Amino acid sequence: MGKGRASPDRPAETVRGASAAGISLVRHLSGGYFLMTLDVPVSFSAAVPGQFVMVRPPGRYPLLARPISIHDCRRVGRAARIDLLVREAGEGTRALGALRRGDRVGIWGPLGKGFSDAAAKRRVLVAGGRGIAPMWFLARRLFDAARADRPAIDLFYGARSSDELHYVDEFRAIGVKVHIATDDGSRGYKGMVTGLLRDKLGVKTRPPRHKKKEPAATQLGMFDPAPVPPPAPAATVEKAPPPVFCACGPMPMLRAVHDVAAALGAICEVSLESRMACGIGVCLGCAHETAEGGLMHVCKDGPVVDSRVVFGSGVQGGTGG
Amino acid sequence: MNVDLSVEIGGLRLKNPVLTASGTFGYGIEFADYLDLSRLGGIVTKGLSLLPRRGNPPPRIVETPSGLLNAIGLENVGLENFARDILPALAKTGTRVIVNFFGDSVEEYAQMAAELDGLGGVDALELNISCPNVKAGGMAFGTRPESAAAVTAAVRARTGKTLIVKLSPACDAVAVARAVAGAGADAVSCMNTIPAMAIDPATRRPRLANVTGGLSGPAVRPVAVKMTFDVARAVTIPVVGVGGIMSGDDALEFVMAGASGVEVGTANFTDPCAAVRVLDGIEAYCARHRVREYRTLIGSLLTDGAPTSCG
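Structure tokens for the assembled complex are given below, as produced in the milestone run.
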């Protein structure tokens, strides 16, 4: 962090600071996506899948950094390198996409809570659109050779059209079983990825009805980070222990994945998205209502949370029908 | 060259003029990983109320040209939680602790002041009578000289600590500044956010759930510099300049316009080390321009004549 001096009780090496990271690669992909590789300090190599970084192009515009999920991260000598897989969705991501190799960006992180490291024989990853970004990091980490408990991974990957699908071959090459859905049917199953998920897992839940829970009057709204107890296994068709679900994508998709997981009595972790200014819990711009009517902050309490925190402990549509 | 950066604001001695603006620096300790807090002149906390507050529904923020529009709604942990869980660590950071606070009534403001007066580790108070994002309290008190003076006097009666009153730009700031100075304020800070709004034409909806918000960031800086200039000429108490400061040069605009100290706000979001970079910039300016004492820059603006009243 440049000129900042360490305080007496805080050795300099623990001061993370904000860095100026050099861009070593920008590769534009189809569907408005780009991959950006950044050379960052070694402290970033502590990142876990699901965490994010705040990234800001140089200069005065745009004003605010953007929260971007870490697509991959590796240590390179005494430094680290992170990959960001970004879809140009607004002014901030467009400004990032206009940068080139050799340009520098402001960056701080890794931030927030990632996917849990719980041992599971089977993981089901569900990605919608740009929600694919953290799934590569997650799959790679789960398959890490050092791990004895290498799980089976199924990736359900949905996008509007085939040109918005990325890294499918790479996922397959490392041993992930990939199931594809596109809205227009240009590749794989035609329709929502959650429809494909329900079909493949043999789970029937009704499409979500979006009823809103009234916040409890007595609850002031500060998020209680106490862990949610594991769900009671539902009396379902599954005989083997249920997989752990990890999902990243639009809210209706996350809700639907939560319902599938709940029907199976499975743990489901979802990665939330929010506008935020700082990423470190001070702007309070990323407030998100919890199922209990409380308030959480996506940057610190998330972005990855147990799906029951935001969707409650029941299956919204019921398991019948 | 050794530059003396120290400055006094209403009896509060600061090692340097750089403070953090309320609402942009949390409770301070969140930034310990990013910068050496002991380098700052002081930390102004997130606005505190007697009881915890939930704040406004999301979306609460949106970026606008060179600006940040927010309607957080004064979400905070409340005075009791702050005093118990946060203040002990904050008081050990080696910098001045200035607590920003607000109430829903004059009585609540006064009660807050009394309780804060008794808290060791709190060096000064910043009275928020200018938040645009809450219905009760906030700006309702700050836009009329009479009510601003009444709440300032009630608070003054309950605390001997340095009292800074944060002014709204959405009023006759000079009249309010005079009123709060007369009611016992030790200093004023210019300025809080500008009431503002943004609309998404595609949906015909406001971009903030609260419909309107407060604008901050570089977009507002010229407004804040002018307000600082006007207020500093109208009152004898010190002025703290705040509004869109991103660099040392930005801060010095306020200082030359008459501010004794500055608060860095939105810049903390664009770079967690921004406050220290602003301080480095001020120090570098002093060294470059052979200024041995920062204090001599206050109100040092050079003009060829009196400014006209408009344009």
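Chain A has seven helices and 16 strands. The mean pLDDT of chain A is 85. Further analysis is deferred to the final report.
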